[in-house]
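Example record

One chain of 227 residues, shown exactly as stored in the release files.
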Amino acid sequence: MSTFRTLSLLAATTLSLFALVGCNAPMEEDAPTEAVTESIGETEQELTTCGWQCPTGYHPTSYVCNLLACGSSCYGPGSSNQVICQPNRGNFTSCGSSCPSGWAVQSYSCNLMDCSDSCYGPGNSNQVTCAQICDPRSGTHSQMNFDAVGNAEYAYRNGWCSIGTSYPAQCFNGTYYYSQTLGSNHCVKVGSNGTCQDPDALWEVTCKSVVKCTYNCNGQCVKSTCT
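Predicted structure tokens for this chain:
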């Protein structure tokens, strides 16, 4: 059985849910209704830079002296002129005595090998362990908008986007759906009689769905998974 036929039968006989393929537009429950496109950017990774300061969003994990790349003298912490930086994510250990905004000091320690040749900070330290301060909603559930896109035959048009109307709220394909409304639809392939109104004509359907999400530590409500 073809994929198109399978999708159509699924719509007619089970959930009418066209969430099998496509893209999403997540928004928090009270957010504006315009679509938000999810972009896939480069993952932040370790970086090394001359000097002893890291860019915003990074913290120093060690200092080194690199005369070849960074100059003829090493005058920074631990006689250094180069710093190795890690992105601020989760809980982490950083050279110094303070944590960036959004993180709280969990403990202090002394690391003469990586951070400097003296421990001058609180409790004779030169290194701090930082714990992320989570949004108070972390782990709780809410709702978000989600555009589900799929293909189905014209014969099953009365069942398109039926969660919350013909079918109750439920888990489907790993996502919990509260409700759906028909967003857009257009013919992508004529049927056996040469028209888009033939029962076997293929249409692309967008269901404007409301799904379950869970707040993460950063306060973002991310689409939940279910079984």
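Notes: Confidence is low (pLDDT under 50) at residues 1-43.
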